[in-house]
Amino acid sequence: MANRPTDHWRASRAREALEVAVGDLDPDCAGAAELWPDSLLTATDDALRVFEDDVRRLDEPSDQDVYDVIERVVLALNTVHDDETALDHCGYETDEREQLCAYIDRTLAGHGVDVAALAARNGMGRHEITDRWRDW
Q: What is the DSSP string of the chain?
């Protein structure tokens, strides 16, 4: 299974907290905990866990089966993003969006889905497989 973006975000938070603790970073310059609050991390992990389970259950899937799985995770991530922005948190910004899309791609590919071929069969580029549903 591909590493989740949330693993990277948590590691960044921990590095930053350590830098603050040892005096290498001014606390006023620390922003990782604000960028990736616990609520965002937990809700994102929950959505990705369901996605991973859905992908594991795919057995010789049709294109529609794969797109159904993509749609479910993207809609779940839309909800996370909307909930976070309603709380005045950042939600998913450009880097997070790119990491989430790459994670979806890598997870599918890691389970035997030829993502480039899937996208091409459906008249789009590989990077567009989430666009139909994505609000973040």
A: -PPPHHHHHHHHHHHHHHHHHTTSS-GGG--HHHHS-HHHHHHHHHHHHHHHHHHHH-SS--HHHHHHHHHHHHHHHHHHHHHHHHTT-----HHHHHHHHHHHHHHHHHTT--HHHHHHHTTS-GGGTTTTT---
